[in-house]
Structure formats: C-alpha cells, structure tokens
Recover the amino acids of this structure.
C-alpha cells in the first residue's frame, strides 16, 4: 500500500470525472446527431402530409412538381428506388459472398493479403467518378453493344450454374440404382442428355438476348450494375470478416469428421457466419439505396414505372435523385408542398434504412444466441 | 522613442492589412445561376479579371438557384435564362431585395438529334407531340422506324421553363417517360451518343457532335434568333439587387462593349445590343 494525499486523491477524482464525461459527450454526440437528423427531416416532412394527405404520394405516379396545378405522385419514384436497389442486390450479393468465400477459404493467404485491399479500394472511389463512368462510357456502350453484352453476361453467369445443376441432378436421379456399373452408365447418359438441353437453353436465350436493342443506356440496368460495384466492397469485406471469425476449430473439426472442403464451406462455415453475412448484405443494400450521384447521373431520371414492370432497360427515377435534382427550385418557396415533399421522401428513406438496420441487428443477435447454444 | 516607433509601425501594418481587406471586399463579384448563361459569365469573368484585376466567381446551379442566391444575398449577380417568376419576386421583396433585370444576350433553344438521324426539320407542333408522348416513333415524324428517346432538363432549369413556355404551353405536360439531365452539356453528350434521342439546348451548345433541327422550317442561328423568325427564342438575363454600381455595373455593361459582343457571338449566343 502507498499513501496518497487527500489533495492528490481529489485531483484524480476530478480528472476521472472530466475524462469520462468528455468520452460520454463525444459518444452521445453521434447519437444526438442521428436523433436531430430524424427530428428535423420529420419536422419538415409532416407539413407535406398535412397539406396534401397520404394517398397521392403513395398511390399516384404523376410527378409534376413544377406544373400548375402541381402533382406529387411518388409511386413511380419509390418503385424506381426499389427496382434499382433490388437489381444491384441481385448482382452484388451472389458475387460478393462468392468473392468473400474465395478470399477466406480458397485462396492462399499470400494472395488474400493483396486481393482484399484491392477490393476495398473500390469503396474509396468517389461516387461522382462512378457516375461519370456510367454516363459517359457505360451508357453509350450499352446502347451500341447492349445485346452482345447481355448475351456474354448470360453465358458467363449461367454456364457454371447450369453445369453444376446438370451434375447434381444426374447424381440425384441415379443414386437409387444399386449396381455400380449400371449406375455409372445411367449417370453418364442422363448427364449428357441434360448437358445437351442446357447447351440448347444457353444458346437460345443467348441468341434472344443478343437481338435486344437497348434504346437508352441511362437505364435501371446501368445503374444497378454500377451500384452493385459500389456495394461490393462492403459486402465482400464484411462477409469475409464474418467467415474469418468462424475460426479454425470449426473448420478443422469439420475436416476431422471427413468432410471435403466444399462440404466444410457449405455445411459448416456458411451457416456459422450467416449473421455476419446478412449484416454485410444489408449494409451493401443500404449503400445502394442511399446512393445519389450515380443514379442522378445515369438512371435517366424519368419518373414512370417501366413497361412491363420488370423492364430494366428503361430509365427510372429514384427518391435520392429526385431530392438532389429538385432541391434547388423548391427551396425558394419555403413552406410550399413542393418543398416539403422532398423531406417526405427523405423521411421515407430514413425510415426504410432505420427498419432494415433494426432487422439486421435482430438477426445478428438471434443468430449469435443460436450459435452459442442458448 | 523606440516604443513610439514600434507602435507606429504596428499601426501602419495594421492599417495596410485592413485597407487591403477592404479593397478585396469591393473587388470581388460573386455570380450564381443558369448553366446556359454560365459560359457567357465565365468568358466575361476571365476577360474582366484580366483587365480590371477584379475576382469573379461563377457558379452554375440553374436559374432557380441563381434567383435563390440573389434573394438570400449570397451572390452579387444572378444569371438567369428566364425572367424571375412572380413568387420569386415576392420572396425577394419580402427579404428586402430589389431584383433588377439586365438583358445579356439572346438565345434560341436548338432542338438537337443524333447526327445520324434522318430527320432534319420538325414543326413546333411535332416537337410538342413528341414531348407529350403522342409521337413515340421517329417514323411518325418522317424519320426511320425507331422509338424516340426524349431528354429534358431538371425542374430548376431556366431552359426547361423556357421550353415549357415556348413549345409546350400551359396545358400540355411533358411525358413521364422523358429522361432528365442536369445541364446543357449533359443533354448534348447524351444526344451525341444516343442515336434515337432528341433534346434541347441553348444555341451555343449545339456544335458538330449533334444535329440542330430546323423548327417550322427555320434554321436556328444568330440571324434568325435576332430577327425573331426562329420560333423558340428567349432573352438571357443577369439580375442584380438594385441598380448596380461600381465594378458590378462595369461587369453588367459588358454586353454593350465591343469586346463583350465579340465574346457573346464567339460562344454561340446572339447579341442583344
């Protein structure tokens, strides 16, 4: 024991309180900022619904904010946001998770050391650079070579999956045959038959796709692809961390039971890392939903629901781009519906991201409980 | 004595700093607004800075934003490709700002298509029909059998307002299928790279990368805009808060000088004075 003077003890106590309160101040500052943003956006969004009510905003797709009389139907815009987000998710999620698995469990450590930082560098590219690329290079490319691009994409994506599907189906269909010789023969026959079918399918769909003329390159497809590139680094990086976190014990336990690497990945590592991967996916999707610059530059910004509804080759307009594009004009007449409707859109975006954050949080917690056996 | 000297020196230095500060404040012009007037303003600015040493900053954020900046007193000159609207004038008066209009130049809205497009001329009614969504295929207006991709400007663009006023008229909304681009340059580059597109830009932007259409049989050029035979023409404005004075007045008067006139026609707009 050593004796500390009363004075010194008092100084220490004050220093402790001061230090802790400084930390608390900075920590709560972040939380307060979130709260304030919510508050101020909501404060300016509510008057819109007071002036115009709910039904027009959510059910009409007539977006004529500058006309007399003005119309504020945001359905097509909400739909555009959903479409672009879904499109980018469809591309980025399988690609991102596959890349993460490859990085964490397939590639040798030395390669991963280099590959991961390179992928993460994608996140450092400013969105306006992506937008510029999408508008100036990718859009004309889609217009001029849209069909062939779609055809090659289909072949590259579909061929490995179809091959896998053929092998697995052939195996499944022939497992009941007892005699090994006969089984092998049947397997070969069925596999080659299915293989020919798959090739025909590849060829027919490919020919159909290559005949497509893309009318305008600034469309939902363009934006979806570019947004998926922007969401990829998040998804890859976070899910790779999740896969790494599964740990050596589970992997080696699985190998010790005689599982192959494929079985270990699919049956042990992926289930154990589900929560982390889900969090990665939601983070990636939020990145795509909230992105403004790229969609403003490259989505074409026409506020209609494509015809037919799944036509990714038509231009769409998103919530974020509308806020960015209409802000300047609306600001002059503060207090008008035209001003507040943009806040209503902002609030909608905020609520969506808030809900998905909550959901991902819940999933992570639940998954952790299941894994720890509680 | 030494102390006096120090104080004196300090005061002198302080005075010098203060006076250069004051000098700089009166020596700067801030402009905001139309992307159409932007090139004129920028060309004026560089020659103005060269001859007078006055710093001129030009932001291009659309006519609506220019009006807003003037109303909020964050710029000295608002560039606008349309006149101020009644609600903008009211908002300005509410804030004690008195917008004064100065015509800078005249401009025609060139209807532009891809150079490979067979169509060379459209009537105003045909253009209206295209943008209303009544004509969706070029074959309906004498072109090849290909769908029309129409491109418009965003809602805070003065060019968009001019187009709506001069071509569409009040009752005819632009089709929801129309794509939106944020500047004259963006429309031009989209049209230049999209074979089936049609768009509208300020006369000065219609260069060789696109084809400007004859409207009602009249070619868009300086002569037809000046004598009013080209049907889609308008004036471009600069707005100041009250009658301008000092360097701002000197700047506003540039379109009347020989040099200003030369700049305007070099960029592709039409002289008003």
């Amino acid at each position: 024991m050593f004796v500390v003077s009363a004075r010194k003890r008092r100084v220490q106590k004050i220093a402790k309180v001061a230090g802790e309160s400084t930390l608390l101040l900075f920590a709560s500052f972040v939380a307060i900022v979130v709260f304030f943003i919510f508050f101020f956006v909501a404060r300016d969004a509510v008057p819109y619904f007071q002036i115009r009510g709910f039904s027009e905003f959510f059910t009409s797709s007539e977006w004529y904010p500058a006309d007399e009389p003005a119309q504020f139907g945001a359905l097509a815009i909400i739909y555009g946001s959903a479409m672009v987000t879904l499109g980018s998710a469809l591309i980025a999620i399988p690609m991102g998770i596959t890349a993460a698995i490859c990085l964490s469990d397939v590639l040798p450590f030395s390669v991963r050391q280099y590959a991961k930082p390179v992928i993460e560098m994608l996140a450092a590219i400013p969105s306006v650079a992506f937008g510029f690329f999408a508008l100036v290079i990718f859009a004309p490319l889609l217009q001029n070579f849209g069909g062939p691009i779609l055809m090659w994409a289909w072949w590259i994506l579909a061929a490995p999956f179809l091959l896998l599907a053929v092998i697995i189906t052939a195996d499944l269909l022939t497992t009941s045959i007892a005699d090994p010789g006969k089984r092998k023969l049947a397997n070969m026959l069925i596999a080659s038959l299915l293989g020919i079918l798959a090739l025909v399918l590849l060829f027919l769909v490919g020919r159909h796709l290559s005949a497509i003329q893309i009318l305008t390159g600034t469309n939902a497809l363009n934006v979806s692809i570019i947004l998926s590139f922007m969401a990829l680094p998040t998804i890859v990086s976070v899910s790779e961390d999740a896969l790494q976190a599964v740990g050596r014990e589970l992997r080696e336990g699985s190998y010790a039971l005689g599982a192959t690497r494929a079985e270990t990945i699919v049956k042990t590592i992926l289930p154990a890392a589900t929560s982390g991967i889900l969090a990665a996916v939601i983070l990636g999707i939020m990145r795509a939903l909230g992105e403004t610059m790229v969609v403003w530059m490259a989505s074409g910004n026409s506020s209609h629901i494509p015809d037919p509804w799944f036509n990714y080759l038509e231009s769409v307009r998103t919530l974020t781009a509308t806020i960015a594009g209409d802000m300047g004009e609306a600001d002059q007449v503060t207090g008008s519906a035209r001003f507040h409707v943009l806040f209503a859109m902002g609030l909608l975006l905020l609520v969506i991201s808030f809900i998905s954050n909550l959901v991902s949080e819940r999933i992570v917690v639940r998954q952790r409980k299941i894994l720890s056996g509680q | 004595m030494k102390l006096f000297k120090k104080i004196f020196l300090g005061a002198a230095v302080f005075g010098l700093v203060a006076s250069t500060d004051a000098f700089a404040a009166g020596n700067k012009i801030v402009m905001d607004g139309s992307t159409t007037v932007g090139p004129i303003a920028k060309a004026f600015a560089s020659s103005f800075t060269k001859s007078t040493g006055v710093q001129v900053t030009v932001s291009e954020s659309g006519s609506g934003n220019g009006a807003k900046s003037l109303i909020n007193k964050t710029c000295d000159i608002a560039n606008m490709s349309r006149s101020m609207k009644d609600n903008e004038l009211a908002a300005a008066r509410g804030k004690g700002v008195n917008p004064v209009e100065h015509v800078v130049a005249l401009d025609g809205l060139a209807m532009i298509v891809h150079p490979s497009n067979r169509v060379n001329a459209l009537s105003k009614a045909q253009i209206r029909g295209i943008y209303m969504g009544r004509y969706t295929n070029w074959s309906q207006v004498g072109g090849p059998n290909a769908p029309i991709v129409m491109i418009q400007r965003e809602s805070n663009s003065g060019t968009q307002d001019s187009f709506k006023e001069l071509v569409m008229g009040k009752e005819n909304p632009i089709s929801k299928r129309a794509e939106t681009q944020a500047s004259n340059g963006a429309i031009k580059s989209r049209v230049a790279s999209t074979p089936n597109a049609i768009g509208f830009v300020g006369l000065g932007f219609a260069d060789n990368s696109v084809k400007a259409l004859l409207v009602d049989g009249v070619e868009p050029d300086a002569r037809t805009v000046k004598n009013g035979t080209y049907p889609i023409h308008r004036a471009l404005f600069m707005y100041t808060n009250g009658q301008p004075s000092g360097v701002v007045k000197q700047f506003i008067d540039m379109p009347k000088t020989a040099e200003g006139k030369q700049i305007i026609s070099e960029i592709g707009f039409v002289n008003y004075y």
Residues 60-340 of chain A form a domain with the MetI-like fold fold (CATH 1.10.3720). The longest strand of chain A covers residues 63-64. The radius of gyration of chain A is 27 Å. The interface with chain B takes residues 61-68, 76, 135-136, 139-140, 143, 215-218, 296-297, 300-304, 314-315, 317, 325-329, 331-333 of chain A (CB under 8 Å).
